[in-house]
What does this fold into?
Amino acid sequence: MVIVIDPQIAGISGDMLLSALVNLGADKSKIIDGIKTAEKFLDGSEIKKIDFESVKKHGTEATTLVLEVDEKVHERKGADIKKCIEDSMKKLTLSEKAKNFAISSIDVLMQAESKIHGYPLESVHFHEASSIDTVVDIIGTAIALDDLKFFDDHIVTSPVAVGGGTITFSHGTTSNPASAILEIFRNSNIIIYGGNAKEELTTPTGASLLVSLTNECSEFYPSLTVKSIGYGAGKKDFEGFSNVLKIVQGIETNILVKDSVKVLETNVDDVSGEILGNLIEKIMSKGAKDVTISYAITKKGRPTNLVSVICDSNSVHDIMNLLISETGTLGVRVRTSERFIVPRSLESIPVTIDGQNFTIHYKTANKDSKNFKLEFDDVKQISNLLNKSFRETGELIKFQVKKKLDST
It folds into this structure.
């Protein structure tokens, strides 16, 4: 099966995702019972009412989360929210994938805050995300996905509407999207754009859940036969569109996924190897999918290097300007190329090395979890932190990941 999460009009929040899953058929009693279990692990928060109800948003019938809480704490450490989620996972009967997803989601949120404010993870404070709402969204979504058995499916997201204008929160007024949203989506390969409202359409919790659930983004739906559709309503009302997140479940009619990319090429014949090596890193940081530099001979026997870049349409101008400024080239060729790719997914799993806990990401293709590839940046970061060689670190991580996958 293939699952398409569609936040390209109304964006995504934690409660919208959870509500859409309930609308698709997730057992709401199981979700509510699981959330009430988690409530016991978060002092200062009491759930007065929790339910899922039917509403209409600009003509679209959808499900919404009704949540009334008595919140005596208005600021918590991210570590407190994470511990609540971890303790809840130990009590709840969920798959390892569901547990890893929940922990990965709160990790993504904490890492974004840590990066923005320059605090170590254990010192990160949550303001807007400090209430039990965050726990409800993460644990409820993990239970719902597990109940629907979606963790075994191929999950795709369309580009995400984040809204525009300004927002005011605990740190004052800032342009929308806020830094937390940008940090969460950074390096995720998920496309974001403004959308149709000068308001916040995507929340940090919603973004964290989406990034943890899938790292594949497509501007077009994959080839599928539609089986069911879920609609999850947000709290706001907008004039021109339904504030609803759509999730589509279907059967893939082609194991290959079709998309289109931009190919940028330029020949450079007077650039040193050091500049080209640095150029690769800079191009990849701008969102390129791949960079290739090939040696060739051009007219009059001149040696040259052909720089070829594969990227999406949103990255074209930034990468083109970078090619010109870094190499001094006088022109860049651009063409659109269609491609068929094997469906792949980005998974995450906790590992412990030398007594330290890390979350490692790995890619699988065609749902074959037995064959996986570790994310280079994760291995590199852990290698540097532990002062071990890249090769040794990779082997230690592979052993743990394989052991956990074999046990599931």
Summary: The mean pLDDT is 89. Residues 263-340 form a domain with the Alpha-Beta Plaits fold (CATH 3.30.70.1380). The chain has three domains: 2-254, 263-340, 344-406. The first strand starts at residue 2 and ends at 6.
